[in-house]
Amino acid sequence: MEELVRAKRRALYLLTDMDRTEKELYDRLKKTGYSEETVNAAMEYVKSFGYIDDVRYARKYIEIFRDRKSRLKMTYDMAAKGVDREVIENAFLEYPEYDETDLIRRLAEKKLRGRDLTEPGVWQKTAAYLARRGFASGDIVKVLQSLL
User: Fold this and answer.
1) Measured by CB atoms within 10 angstroms of the end CB, which terminus of the chain is less buried, N or C?
2) Does 108 lie in the same domain as 143?
3) Percent of the chain with pLDDT over 90
4) Which residues of 97-117 are buried (b: 16+ CB within 10 A; e: fewer)?
5) Are residues 76 and 37 in the same domain?
6) The predicted structure's pLDDT at residue 58
7) Contact at 8 Å (CB) between 116 and 81?
8) Number of domains into which the chain is organized
9) Which domain holds residue 42?
10) 31, 48, 65 - which closes a domain
11) Can you give the pLDDT at residue 82?
């Protein structure tokens, strides 16, 4: 009984400074050393108050990172945190105006900071920077060509 109270308090504490996915909270409680039964009971407790909601988490994540990350990168990051793929796809449906081409252009311009794409190595470095953020190579090439 005392272990359950401690697990509930720990779960609430872990949620005070940031949202977490169900999997993240579960893993953190397990790592603390609580039994499977206690962790499940603590998870149900925080879920009953709506403190854990992967759908809300996915929406918020997209809202925060849509100006910095590609759709692919956000999908990968959320999946790594335990958010279901279907939940992620449904969350993206709420942002039909999401335009990666514009984002690629803004990130490329920021990376270039006035340098010329025709300088040796600049094109490759800029393209690699954008590729690491999960953008499609075809989209990167189109945007970089338009910046020439």
Assistant:
1) N
2) yes
3) 50
4) eeebeebbbebbeeebeeeee
5) no
6) 94
7) no
8) 3
9) 2-48
10) 48
11) 93
CB-based contacts of 135, cutoff 8 Å, min separation 6: 70, 72, 100, 104
143 and 113 inside one domain: yes
Give the list of residues 6+ apart from residue 83 with CB closer than 8 angstroms, or none. 21, 23, 54, 57, 58
Label residue 137 exposed, middle or buried (CB < 10 Å: 0-12, 13-18, 19+): exposed
Tokens of 56: 């809300």
Hunting for tokens 């918020």 — which residue is that?
60
CATH number of the domain bearing residue 23 = 1.10.10
Q: At what angle do helices 54-65 and 85-93 cross, to 10 degrees?
A: 50
Residue 18 per-residue DSSP state:
S
pTM beyond 0.70: yes
Give 115's pLDDT tier (boundaries 50, 70, 90): confident
